[in-house]
């Protein structure tokens, strides 16, 4: 079981304590993604990656048998163009020593995982890492399963093991925490405009109204 605190302020995420592992967002996995609209998972996974970059959170990219399953999707790779994903044969990412060593090298214990498929490639490493003392968070809307049932059962199984389900916008919000943290606001705003759905649309409208109000006051 994950030995992290599940309540109180210390249970929330901070950039300084977090490390992200993105698992197998590849064409083969997307081909049998049926729990979510695939374009939504792409949007959310890229948004999570961009959030990690905004807050300087170490992010590890992984693929499985990329020579058959395809390279990491372009949207994710473009966030970290210099990083070569760790390509595995093991289904369970946490059994690949390169991935575990990369996570441990950060010295961080709040492990944030998203990937395809939830019931296999997310659940297996999440459950194992939780048993090894990491506080594990599974980003459910940046992940997906072969069916809705498969995704849901994967999430339930992880919860039983002490893994915390969370969404990408909740992760970004916990990292931001305070709107007085002005150095990250421009990048956060840009990301929300691009990936935040109705939130981005509403923000654009608000900016339009504010601009129109300023223009009217100058007349």
Automatic annotation (TrEMBL):
Keywords of the record, alphabetical order, are: Hydrolase
Gene Ontology molecular function terms on file: hydrolase activity
**What InterPro entries does the entry give?**
Hydrolase_YcaC-like (IPR053152), Isochorismatase-like_dom (IPR000868), Isochorismatase-like_sf (IPR036380)
- The chain positions of domain Isochorismatase-like read 19-168
Keyword Hydrolase set for record? yes
Is Ribosomal protein one of the keywords UniProt gives this record? no
Mind telling me what this protein is named? Hydrolase
Highest classification ranks of the organism: Bacteria, Bacillati, Actinomycetota, Actinomycetes, Kitasatosporales
């Amino acid at each position: 079981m994950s030995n992290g605190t599940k309540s109180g302020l210390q249970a929330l995420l901070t950039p300084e304590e977090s490390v992200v592992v993105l698992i197998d967002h590849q064409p083969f996995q997307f081909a049998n993604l049926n729990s979510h609209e695939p374009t939504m998972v792409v949007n959310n996974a890229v948004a999570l990656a961009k959030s990690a970059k905004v807050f300087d959170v170490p992010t590890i990219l992984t693929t499985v048998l990329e020579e058959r399953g395809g390279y990491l999707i372009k949207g994710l790779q473009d966030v970290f163009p210099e990083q070569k994903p760790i390509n595995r044969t093991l289904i369970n990412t946490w059994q690949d020593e390169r991935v575990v060593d990369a996570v441990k090298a950060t010295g961080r214990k709040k492990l944030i995982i998203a990937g395809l498929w939830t019931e296999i490639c997310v659940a297996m490493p999440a459950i194992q890492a939780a048993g090894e003392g990491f506080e594990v968070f599974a980003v459910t809307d940046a992940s997906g399963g072969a069916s809705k049932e498969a995704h849901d059962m994967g999430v339930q199984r992880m919860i039983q093991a002490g893994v915390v389900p969370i969404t990408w916008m909740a992760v970004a919000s916990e990292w931001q925490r305070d709107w007085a943290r002005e150095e990250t606001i421009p990048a956060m705003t840009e990301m929300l405009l691009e990936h935040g759905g109705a939130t981005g649309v509403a923000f654009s409208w608000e900016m339009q109204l504010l601009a129109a109000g300023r223009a009217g006051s100058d007349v």
